[in-house]
Structure formats: C-alpha cells, structure tokens
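Q: How would the structure tokens look for this protein?
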Amino acid sequence: MNSHMGWAIGSIFLFWPLAIPAIMAASRCNAAVAAGDYMGATAASEDAKKWAKLATIIGACWYGLWCVISIIWVIVGVAAVGSASTSY
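A: Here is the predicted structure in token form.
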C-alpha cells in the first residue's frame, strides 16, 4: 500500500497549508496498514494523494507566478532607469 508520505513531505516545500493534511492522511494510512484495516488504508492513501497533489499544483503555480512577476519587475525597473538617464 502506497501511503504517499514522500510526496506529502516533499509538497511541504511548495505549499505547506495543504501539505500538513497530506502528511496526516499518509500517517493514518500507515497506521491502518499496521492494524490490518486495508479499506481504511486505501481511503487514507487516496486522501493523502489528493492533498499532496493540490499542494504541489498550487505551490508550483504560486512559484511560477512569482517568477513571472519578478521578471516583469526587473524589466520595468531597467526601463525606468534607462528612461531616467536619457531625460537629462
């Protein structure tokens, strides 16, 4: 049974508010497997996968948007400095 614990822990670097429920669900999966509750483990595994996927998607979009905004900010700053030096 795959608990998706690695993915859940990795997604904490992308978007931690959704990675925490993923880690909790992966822990429930491991506990359910240890107790022999395979139906509960499957449900917890799917839950962990869902939360980890959401954290990864939102985090990747957030970092991508941040990079685009930073590049635009640098371009606007360079253009402003260039136009300020030619106005004298």
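Residues 38-85 form the longest helix (48 residues).

The two ends are 70 Å apart (CA to CA).

Upvote if useful.
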